[in-house]
Amino acid sequence: MTAPAPSPDSSLRSLYEDPTVVVASSLHRARRQLALLEPLLDRAAVSRRRLRILDVGCGDGAATALLAQRAHGHTVVGVDWSRMALERARARGLTLVRATLDHGGLPVADEAVDVVVFSEVIEHLVDTDAALDELTRVLRPGGSLLLSTPNLAAWFNRGLLLAGVQPVFTEVSLKRIYGRPGREVVGHLRVFTRAALLGLLRGHGLDIVAVRGAAYHDTPRVLRPLDRLLQHVPELAADLIVHARTPLVSGTGLPGTPDTAPSAEDPMPLAPELLALLACPVDKGPLLYDPQTESLYNPRLRRAYAVVDGIPHLLADEARPVGRPDHERLTGTAAPAADREPSSPARPA
């Protein structure tokens, strides 16, 4: 009897926890993407609002650190599933959450985020539609999605296809490279042209604000000047960078939260602005912090999520059940009589 084949999900997770797999971002592309955020930050400064920015798929945190530096004073949270990537990102002093787009979704309430950064992630996903549905769910009306992904129709890929060579950025195996230039398997499942990517985003109700290109960090040295030149033509650029926006709704207030100074003494190990943003990945309701067990607790489902080294692990399948005594301790209320353990019957005299 043959063993069942591993699911695509388990194969990808094993790939991304492999220490030899690249989880770093191109800082050149990150800076070009960050330029699209500048007008949003300028408007927030004028209105004295603090933006909530979620970097979904933050990897090793290199690009997130650039973002946090530029968006100083705003709430910047990096999200990733990979323990290995988060361990590297934690060394950069970032605010982080372990979570995923699937299996319950992001641990954030509806319309709670002003900006989602989604860099070099969509090409790794099996279900791009579910991912975009989840990202638009957490974005407020008029919220911004900053997305980047490799361009299938990049100038060098057009030449490779004419020569009968597998294009860069595409994979036919998760174990090794076959038929294309490059040295690293990176798990790309979806590849996009400019037209296909914009069509997908519009199909999910997003308005396109701007499209930019970026050069490829691993282009052979002799071709780099040409690659840098063609990044100004998005249809031919190595990478596509898109600023998309959820539709505005009449009566929507200003983005972000009021910019108030934080308290001088804060005994909580998790920042208050992070606690205000996070929600249970299952019912999307608020969570209580339990310092005694270092966990975040959902009193409605009586499930707790661990906080490890200051990083909340908000994965639906890793929640632990919480008993009645801890529930009462955390909520300050006694459980309904129906939920209590039955008392032993009295012995006859």
UniProtKB/TrEMBL annotation:
<dbReference type="Pfam" id="PF13489">
    <property type="entry name" value="Methyltransf_23"/>
</dbReference>
<dbReference type="InterPro" id="IPR029063">
    <property type="entry name" value="SAM-dependent_MTases_sf"/>
</dbReference>
<dbReference type="GO" id="GO:0008168">
    <property type="term" value="F:methyltransferase activity"/>
</dbReference>
<protein>
    <recommendedName>
        <fullName>UPF0434 protein SAMN05414137_106222</fullName>
    </recommendedName>
</protein>
<dbReference type="GO" id="GO:0017000">
    <property type="term" value="P:antibiotic biosynthetic process"/>
</dbReference>
<keyword id="KW-0808">Transferase</keyword>
<feature type="compositionally biased region" description="Basic and acidic residues">
    <location>
        <begin position="318"/>
        <end position="330"/>
    </location>
</feature>
<comment type="similarity">
    <text>Belongs to the UPF0434 family.</text>
</comment>
<dbReference type="InterPro" id="IPR005651">
    <property type="entry name" value="Trm112-like"/>
</dbReference>
<dbReference type="GO" id="GO:0032259">
    <property type="term" value="P:methylation"/>
</dbReference>
<keyword id="KW-0489">Methyltransferase</keyword>
<feature type="region of interest" description="Disordered">
    <location>
        <begin position="318"/>
        <end position="349"/>
    </location>
</feature>
<dbReference type="Pfam" id="PF03966">
    <property type="entry name" value="Trm112p"/>
</dbReference>
